[in-house]
Design goal:
binds protoporphyrin IX containing FE; elongated; Fumarate Reductase Cytochrome B subunit; mainly alpha; about 0% strand; 5 helices
């Protein structure tokens, strides 16, 4: 499989980055949601908080590295065309949602990192080394960036649900190759074997 995208297919680099980032972001939303249910006075919860918070931050920082590479890769090459029968309003909606996804996946971890730094709440990246703070301690900055992190993360979660539902709609209802062309090669091959007409 070619590394680069063409005007028909996604290359292996885009696929690997798309699915790794999706996995990291979805795990992190689940972990953040779990953290938000923990209580100070419930036995075991403070220990769980101490375990989950640096894990959430570490996964987010790893995602941020992948996201920067993804953005550089996405905007330095071509991308496959949408099917020719796609109406203009659907093209506009697709490009708007993809554009917003790109903006939010960058904003969410940056705002999270800024929040952690402004609270001076240092953490070890997967227990390896202490990540330096990006901004000096400041409660006002921390409050604003936390709000930004919270709102942008939940907006991202909503858009991802819409985006995934649209991919499934393409596959199950419209029966085009939008979903399969983003899947790893093996799964895409198996699919085209079971649909030899594709
Ligand atoms: C792609 C990555 C990320 C996603 C999807 C994400 C998502 C979220 C969400 C949804 C919440 C709010 C949970 C709630 O109360 O409902 C949250 C909280 C938080 N996030 Fe993130 N986050 C990401 C990356 C980061 C990073 C990189 C950091 C810091 C280095 C960070 C630090 C925090 C902190 C400090 C909180 C508050 C947790 C608490 O209440 O103790 N996040 N995150
Ligand atoms: C956090 C999760 C996700 C994020 C941030 C995300 C983001 C993106 C972005 C930005 C693109 C546009 C690529 C470009 O035009 O350069 C894209 C494409 C795509 N995504 Fe996702 N995605 C996520 C999860 C998913 C899931 C769960 C599915 C399937 C169920 C999915 C299916 C697809 C497909 C099929 C495409 C290709 C669309 C096309 O060929 O025009 N994505 N994704």
């Amino acid at each position: 499989m070619a590394a680069h995208n063409t005007d028909q297919l996604w290359g292996s680099v885009t696929k690997a980055l798309h699915w790794s980032i999706a996995l990291l972001i979805i795990c992190n939303i689940a972990i953040a949601q779990w953290i938000s249910t923990l209580e100070v006075d419930v036995p075991g919860d403070p220990e769980m908080w101490q375990f989950l918070t640096p894990l959430h931050k570490s996964i987010g920082m790893l995602a941020l590295v992948f996201i920067v590479v993804r953005l550089a890769w996405a905007f330095s090459g071509t991308r496959p065309n949408l099917p020719t029968d796609t109406p203009q309003w659907q093209r506009n909606l697709t490009y708007s949602v993809h554009g917003l996804l790109y903006m939010l996946i960058l904003l969410v971890p940056i705002a999270g990192y800024a929040t952690s730094s402004a609270f001076d709440s240092r953490f070890e990246l997967f227990g390896l080394f202490v990540v330096p703070n990006a901004v000096p301690e400041n409660e006002t900055v921390a409050t604003v960036t936390y709000w930004l992190h919270f709102v942008s993360a939940w907006t991202l979660a909503g858009l991802v649900a819409l985006h995934a539902a649209s991919a499934v709609w393409h596959h199950a209802i419209k029966k085009d190759d939008i979903l399969t062309r983003m899947l790893p090669r093996l799964a895409a091959d198996q699919d085209s074997l079971s649909n030899p007409a594709d």
